[in-house]
Structure formats: structure tokens, C-alpha cells
Amino acid sequence: MLEIKNIYKTYGEKVALNHISIELEDGVYGLLGPNGAGKSTLMNIITDNLSMDEGEILYNGNNVAKLGKEFLKKIGFAPQQQGLYDEFTGRRFLSYMGTLKGISKDSLKSEIERVSKAVNLFNELDKKMGAYSGGMKQRILIAQAIMGSPKILIMDEPTAGLDPKERVRIRELLAEISSDKIILVATHVVSDIQSISKEIIMIKKGNIIEKGTPKDLIKRYAENGDLEDVYMKMFDGGQ
Ligand SMILES: Nc1ncnc2c1ncn2[C@@H]1O[C@H](COP(=O)(O)OP(=O)(O)OP(=O)(O)O)[C@@H](O)[C@H]1O
Fold first, then answer.
1. Whole-angstrom Cα distance, residue 89 to residue 124?
2. Which domains occur in the chain, in start order?
3. Is 149 left (phi over 0), alpha (psi -120 to 50) or beta?
4. Which of 8, 40, 189 for mutating ligand 1's site (highest number of atoms within 8 Å of CB)?
5. CA of 203, closest atom in ligand 1
6. Which residues pair with 62 in a beta bridge?
């Protein structure tokens, strides 16, 4: 279990996370909130890419700050698209990321084949990533995140820029691998997570304003509607 306890994070005067606590067990959790809610900040803190002002994170009861690398090895992270390695081929990128994750040379080839097939990029691995479309870049980020089958998968808007068919593929992939791992997916696209999440966490201006199963939230906030209606209600028409 991953326990996020009382995390407080500021950027100068701006409070990005206001004493947030959540507990995550195996399964998919949808982190839903409008732009600027604090989703990326939370994910960057969990993955140790950003420090927090206050709070702590426990993994199976142990403080992750003390676990250090041992904890980070258990995490796969697909950040929001950023400066990728344009000169690398997809294969070289996955090989590089796999090596960083400590995957042995012997298993690297089969692991690259497995993850690239899972995101439908197996036949594109020898192209340079600079020539990849936005959707392909997104998919190779997902592929590197699932390398080594991490116990915790953190995904920041994994389906951004993907066409409907690819969105479904990624959704199905997450559902399929979620039985033995914690998966936290940040998005503002409700339909991406409605059917696969065991719990939805709603975040607004750095505060968790509601959480529950999709079914429960719909019952409480939008009877006869869907999660999209709940979202509109909670976030005042989107924001
Ligand atoms: N490096 C930074 N310096 C100053 N303010 C920041 C910085 N990063 C984020 N913020 C602010 O902190 C708040 C939370 O931002 P964050 O990126 O975590 O939100 P988000 O929910 O991921 O948004 P989006 O859906 O647009 O990605 C926002 O008000 C944002 O402007």
C-alpha cells in the first residue's frame, strides 16, 4: 500500500497542494481535476522528481525517503510529454531506460519487444523519435513506464494526443495489468478512466474535494448521469 500523508507543497506564494492525504492499493485510481489543480505536482512528488514542503509517503508502512532507490525501482512513471530524445530511435530509448531501471542485458531484448507490442510500436522501433507523431511519443513514454513491470505506475495524462482507437488500447492495457499494481492516472478526460478505475480522486486548487468509486460518485452527484456529469458539477462547468 502507498500512503500519501498530509502533503503540502508551495511554489513561492502559490499553494499547489494543501495537506493532501490518500491511500492507494492495487488497482487503477483516477486523479481527476482541471488545469492547475495540482495533479502533476503530486505525481512529481510521489516519483521523487520534486520535493515537498511538508508530509510523508509510506510504502507498505516504510517511509520512501528512507527506502530511496529501493522504492524508486518499484515505480514506472510516464510524465507529461516533454523534451524527448529526438535523436534516439525508439529501440535505443527503451534500451537506455531499461538499463537505468536495472533490467539485465539478457532480458532487455524481450522486454523491449513486450512493452513495444503492448503500445503498438513494435514496428516503429528503428525510427528516430524526432520523427514520431505526438501519439507515438506518448505511447513510447507509456512503454518505458511499464518496463520491468513496476509495482507502482504513475501516469500523467497518458492518453493525451492519442486517437480514439489508441485510447481504448491504453485503457485496456492499464485494466489488464492493474491486478497486481497500484496505478495512478491523472487526466481531465473522464471517459479514459470511468470504466477502469476502482476509485476516482477529485482534486481542485490543491485540495481533494471528493473521492469514491465511479458508481458511488454518480449515485451521489449525478443520478441518471455519468462521471462526466459529476465532473461538470464538481468543477463548475469544467474549471
Ligand atoms: N514550477 C512552478 N512554478 C510556479 N508555479 C507552478 C509551477 N508548477 C506548477 N505551478 C502552479 O501550481 C499549480 C498546480 O500545477 P500542476 O501543474 O500541478 O497542475 P495540474 O493539475 O497538473 O494541471 P494540468 O492539468 O494543466 O497539467 C498551478 O497553479 C500551477 O500554475
1. 9
2. 1-74+152-163+176-239 (3.40.50.300), 86-150 (no CATH)
3. left
4. 40
5. 21
6. 59
Cα 37 to averaged position of ligand 1 atoms, centre (Å): 7
pLDDT of residue 166: 83
Provide residues with CB under 6 Å of ligand 1.
11, 14, 16, 33, 35-41, 188
Report the chain (239 residues): mean pLDDT per 10 consecutive residues.
97 96 95 92 94 96 91 89 81 93 92 94 95 87 92 91 85 88 90 89 95 93 88 74
pLDDT at residue 75, as a whole number: 93
Stated pTM of the model: 0.91
For residue 41, which atom of ligand 1 is closest to its CA? 18
Residue among 7, 3, 18 nearest 67 (CA):
3
